[in-house]
């Protein structure tokens, strides 16, 4: 009977390797499933495998260097910080080599030999050593560099479990490039408004510190001169801020620190994540990004043969917003009870009707992965529209605020001058 070599994830997430005797690949997968193992790779065992296993102990003549490598990779001092562009480059390079048919360790070794990757070569070395010693790729990423982040590591774990690591890494690279492009566009779009704000603040300071005091002295020195009510209010407010500005600065800094401490508290994270979804312009963007990520991840996992329930669990682990994760927990619980995915989404009440309808069509046609991917493309377009809408609103909003602020002060001053002239003529 043929033998199959496998690498699989156990119930506790640990990697297990070995061989299983089965008539064909389908039977081998069934036997692994009965053992509670989730296969990552499965291939025919070659006749050279015993020879390799027999000679493998000789390759362990590096205990000192291996322990040194593991200590360096797990110690805080050994963590490598990467720029966003370096993370994107690492992701693109690795996904391209995996798509070309290379296994993970040879692909990482090939990255080590590249001349132009710089610090990424050190990252590839550390990750390869951990992967070679049996550590999951997602865990190796987390140990080697904090720059990859929890979302990146969760998606990598999903790719390992489904055998679609190259596809998920490619989509993650696209997401990171889109995010970097958005930040670049935002910075460029904010340059002109920033100059307007600085100019408006400068004009306001000139009005408050020079022109209004001079106008006040002129009006009060004139016979029958009397300051209009709005000018009096502005003078009182200005004098108050001039006397107590440091108090307001301390209160502002203290409020910012208190809010940060409250937000970072694990007990308050669900409340803060729920509040972020209700913010006027940022809320729809966060929701659309979640739908795109959730649908793309589900499409990749289900399309690569992963069971629906397991795909939902991995997609939930890749969701950082705790409020949205709670919604996925409800979906997982109901799907685990035998309910259809679309019905479970309807019961939670947190998924748009269009998304649910597209999932229902996929369930009826038996091509749920294609429906999920089409839904992801649709919501990706909606996300781009939301971002473009926000970018288009920034400039007019700042212009209107500046015009109202400076125009109001100019109107008050001109009105005060005309009132003074009228009093003199009277």
UniProtKB/TrEMBL annotation:
Residues 53-63 have a biased composition (Basic residues). The keyword Transmembrane helix applies. The chain crosses the membrane at residues 186-212, 243-262, 390-414. Residues 90-213, 294-414 form the Type II secretion system protein GspF domain. Signal peptide: none annotated. Residues 37-78 are annotated as: Disordered. It comes from the Bacteria. Keywords: Cell inner membrane, Cell membrane, Membrane, Transmembrane, Transmembrane helix. One of its GO terms (cellular component) is plasma membrane. It is a multi-pass membrane protein. It is found in: Cell inner membrane. InterPro entries: GspF/PilC, T2SS_GspF_dom, T2SS_GspF_sf. Residues 65-76 have a biased composition (Polar residues). Gene3D superfamilies: Type II secretion system (T2SS), domain F. Belongs to the GSP F family. This is Type II secretion system F family protein. It comes from Haloferula rosea.
């Amino acid at each position: 009977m043929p033998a199959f070599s496998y690498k699989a994830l156990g119930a506790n997430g640990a990697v297990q390797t070995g061989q299983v005797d089965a008539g064909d690949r389908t039977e081998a997968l069934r036997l692994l499933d009965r053992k509670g193992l989730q296969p990552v790779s499965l291939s025919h065992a070659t006749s050279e495998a015993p020879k390799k296993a027999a000679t493998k102990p000789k390759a362990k003549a590096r205990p000192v260097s291996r322990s040194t490598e593991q200590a360096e990779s797990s110690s805080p001092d050994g963590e490598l910080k990467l720029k966003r562009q370096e993370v994107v480059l690492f992701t693109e390079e690795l996904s391209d080599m995996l798509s070309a048919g290379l296994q993970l360790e040879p692909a990482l070794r090939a990255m080590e030999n590249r001349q132009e990757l710089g610090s990424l070569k050190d990252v590839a070395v550390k990750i390869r050593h951990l992967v070679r010693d049996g550590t999951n790729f997602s865990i190796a990423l987390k140990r080697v560099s904090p720059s990859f982040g929890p979302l990146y590591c969760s998606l990598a774990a999903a790719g390992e479990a489904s055998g679609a690591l190259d596809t998920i890494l490619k989509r993650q690279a696209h997401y990171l490039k889109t995010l970097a492009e958005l930040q670049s566009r935002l910075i460029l779009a904010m340059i002109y408004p920033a100059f307007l704000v600085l100019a408006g603040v400068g004009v306001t300071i000139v009005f408050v510190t020079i022109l209004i005091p001079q106008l006040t002295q002129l009006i009060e020195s004139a016979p029958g001169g009397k300051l209009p009510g709005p000018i009096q209010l502005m003078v009182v407010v200005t004098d108050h801020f001039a006397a107590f500005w440091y108090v307001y600065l301390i209160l502002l800094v203290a409020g910012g620190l208190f809010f940060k401490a409250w937000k970072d508290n694990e007990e308050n994270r669900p409340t803060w994540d729920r509040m972020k979804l209700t913010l006027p312009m940022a809320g729809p963007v966060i929701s659309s990004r979640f739908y795109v990520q959730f649908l793309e991840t589900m499409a990749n996992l289900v399309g690569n043969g992963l069971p629906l329930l397991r795909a939902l669990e991995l997609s939930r682990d890749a969701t950082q917003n705790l409020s949205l994760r709670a919604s996925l927990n409800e979906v997982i619980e109901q799907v685990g009870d035998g309910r259809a995915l679309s019905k479970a989404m309807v019961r939670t009440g947190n998924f748009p009707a269009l998304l649910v309808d597209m999932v229902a069509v996929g369930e009826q046609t038996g091509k749920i992965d294609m429906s999920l991917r089409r839904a992801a493309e649709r919501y990706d377009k909606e996300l781009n529209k939301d971002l473009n809408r926000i970018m288009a609103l920034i400039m007019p909003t700042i212009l209107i605020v500046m015009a109202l602020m400076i125009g109001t002060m100019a109107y008050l001053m001109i009105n005060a001058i005309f009132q003074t002239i009228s009093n003199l003529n009277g």
